Amino acid sequence: MTGPQSGTGGPGEGRPSGLRNPGRAVKGLGAGTLILETLVLLLAIQPIRVLGGELTGTTIGVIVALAVLAVVLSRLLDRGWAWHAGTALQGLLMLAGFLHWSLFVLGVTFALVWAYVLHVRRAILG
Question: In the chain, what percentage of residues exceed pLDDT 90?
């Protein structure tokens, strides 16, 4: 008997995604997304000022805190709870929309990206 169920150790057996290390690939995708989110958050401070947003110390503090949290979570994605915390981070960013509307827009955008990352994770890891 030949084919994928023959148990011969052929290519792709045990790895339906075809990736050498699917867990590492998924972690890299999640970490890259969170690092990109960090950069966007930190770079958003100046455009918020230009758009006429009231940038108080609290608003800047919230933006920096969310960015730091994203960096920390990007390093912890090998733990299962960190993926849930990443989802919560997107919710926190949307709640930051009460400080400035553009933070809500960023929150929705990154929530959609994070939903796609979770979909890819589920598809690859099962």
Answer: 63
